[in-house]
Amino acid sequence: MDKVAIVGASLAGLAAVRALRRQSFAGEIVVVGAEPHLPYDRPPLSKDFLTGAVTVTDLALTHDGEDLGADWRLGVTATGFDPRTRAVHLDTGEVIRADGVVIATGARARPIEHLGVHTLRTLDDALALREALKQTGRLVVIGAGFIGAEVASSARKLGWDVTVVESLPTPLAGQLGTEMGEIVSRLHGDHGVRLLTGLPVTGLTGTDRIEAVELADGTRLPADLVVAGIGAIPNVEWLESAGGLAAATSVPGVVATGDCTGSQHWTFALEHPATAVAELLGTDPPVTKPPYFWSDQYGVMIQFAGHHAPGDTVRIVEGDPERRSFLAVYERDGQPSAVLGLNQPKLFTRWRRQLRSAPQEA
Amino acid sequence: MLQPVCPLSEIPPGEAYRWATEPAVAIFHTEDGEVFAIDDTCTHQDASLADGWLEGCEVECPLHASRFDLRTGAVDAPPAKKPVRTHRVEVTDGVVHVELSKEPPNLPPGAKP
User: Reductase C-terminal domain location, by residue (chain A) (predicted)?
Assistant: First the structure.
């Protein structure tokens, strides 16, 4: 294998470049990125970047002086793929042919098409939102998932009057289960943010600028700013000419990693590229850790690791939910399946380590 | 100048001790019985590396999974980009002594100096 093309220049793309070099690949590497920026760290975009504690420079993921010997083709979008010849078609009309292709095109924020509704996924999104947050007023956040909750927390810190609306009866139920989702979502109320659940958004009003968000029960929430955090869509449309992601990766020499696979976890985008690259090079894959993600809301560190499934039991093994400092262990068939910590990083790390040594089903 | 910090017996192998000097220092006792001292604060964001995941001669930050080599302070996995300082360690009569580095520390954005 002499040449590898990596399509996607965010965390997973960068991790794939590093993994190739670490696994002794000495050939040519071309990285294609739709955004004009070198790889940067997305998690702070909804947190310290919005409040100004973290700058654009701080977000860079590449080290000063780090030479990975890769050809970075930034601001260029892949538009098509031919798996037989491993040819990546670009919006510039150029075609890149390689012996190996790593698909790492990530995902984009699910949009709400209305004037003045922000979403948050990219650095440019975050710069626009940070600018809009410079005044204060009434913010409505649509979606009480992690992004929505973090934006609410950051805006509250900046002095905004914040309302979060969620169509599901319990926020974060899919990620944390209903019991823990309910406890974690109490953080909003603790900090003077209204949380309205079980209420789908039925309309947005305002012509020149956003004026209000309307809910299924007839509630009208006046708003100066609206942010939608309603999920992500994998960037895989460019693979349609190849029959889709699954068909593309069924061809030897083509692998996929990161958020375009449907995962939404930062640590997956960090760690899985080494496995994908090992498959490409025919080397031994590294040991994988259980999924881990975190969120930072209202100064509370929320950490979760493992696989939660409906029917798991949850028990508090340390601390007190009322104090928003505790450790909860999820169990299935008497075995720990996942662990949740609020403001318990040390204990959480211990449990996370134990999860790895416990057998994990596929 | 070597300063006495704590008896080695207070740090079981595989564990760490956070020495609350300014800035704080984390002292690790590896499973192999070696002792290392590095700055306790992750260079990416305010987190205590003494609370992290120690594996061999590497510690993973308990928050965001940045990894640091205890021997060199080098960062081995993002999001951190800058190394932590390492400090010279001597164990004398069962007591851990540390000589603080004279290099400037790489503290994260927003951390108290």
Answer: 292-356
CB contact (8 A) between residue B64 and residue A43 = yes
Q: Which numeric CATH code is attached to A111-228?
A: 3.50.50.60
pLDDT per residue as tens digits for the range A4-58: 999 999 999 999 999 999 999 999 999 999 999 999 999 999 999 999 999 999 9
Q: Which residue of A has its CA nearest to B74?
A: A63
What are the sequence ranges of the domains in chain A? Answer: 3-108+232-281, 111-228, 299-357
How distant, in Å, are the alpha carbons of A354, B8, B16, B28, B33 from that of B13? 17, 9, 8, 8, 6
d(CA A88, CA A238): 9
ipTM metric: 0.87
Domain assignment of residue B83, given as a range: 2-99
**Domain for residue B24, yes or no?**
yes
Report the amino acid identity of residue A8.
G
CATH class of A299-357: alpha beta
Q: Is the pLDDT of residue A332 over 50?
A: yes
CATH number for the domain formed by residue range(s) A3-108+232-281: 3.50.50.60
Q: What's residue A362's pLDDT?
A: 35
How would you list the strands of the sheet with A335-342, edge to edge?
A292-297, A300-306, A335-342, A325-332, A313-320
Which residues of chain A does B63 touch, with a Cβ-Cβ cutoff of 8 Å? Answer: 294, 301, 303, 345
Cβ atoms of A103 and A257 within 8 Å: the answer is yes
CATH assignment of the domain containing B73: 2.102.10.10
Q: What is the mean pLDDT of each run of 10 residues along chain B (113 residues)?
A: 95 96 96 96 94 95 94 91 96 96 91 54
The pTM assigned to this predicted structure is 0.93
